[in-house]
Amino acid sequence: MFALSQRTCRLGAAWAVPMALVAAACEATVPPIPQVDRDALVALYEATNGPHWVDNTNWLSDRPLGEWYGVDTDADGRVVKIVLRGRVSSGPFSLTHGLSGEIPPEIGDLSSLEVLDLGDNDLSGEIPPELGNLSNLVRLALFDNDLSGEIPPELGNLSNLGGLLLFGNDLSGEIPPELGNLSSLEVLWLIGTGLSGELPPELGNLSNLVRLELSWNQRLSGEIPASFLTLDDLELFRFDYSPGLCAPNTSAFTSWLEGMSVAEGPRCYE
Question: What number is the average pLDDT over the span 213-229?
Fold first, then answer.
């Protein structure tokens, strides 16, 4: 069976072509719903209070996945984007989108996913290590939830990741050195996360990093590693209100910090 373009399908009724033939040909232009992607979305819906989301239009229906609220797909029907972020109200507080519960590991099966944004919700539990399977991911935003546990070292596998936003959670443990493998990373926001320990020198390998936010982390400690001096593209670096962190009081660090648009944090021995 030959396939018609979408425009031809829309105009088919105006042609002297049997409608049964037009309908059959048009069916060939609609990609089948990838079952593994649908299963992953269903798992997300069931694990995060889907019936009570602010908007769950078409979820669990037979409509193409790209018509499910907050989901975008590519030409093959594969899920490339999930945005179910809370909304900012007119007052001082944001409104969640109604997601609660834990992020299911099945999300790691969405092999074409490029954006996962579940920020400003009430998600709990740990960040599933299966997210490290999302090799096409360019943005991971899980900020302002109630997530706990350690940052999975598997996230260091995300070589295409440009933005990692985990701020506003109750995480524990140290920053995994594997994050230094994120060669495409431009934005790393870990404000107020509850993380502890010293900064891994491997973060100095993030040659494309532009914004690094480490403020309001009471349990981070130690000097900023000398390897950070190689972060030539860094424009914003904040580690203020993290009383255990400080930048070495050397001319090299002074010059490096002064070269940024924004650099806020204490010097050692001040």
Answer: 97
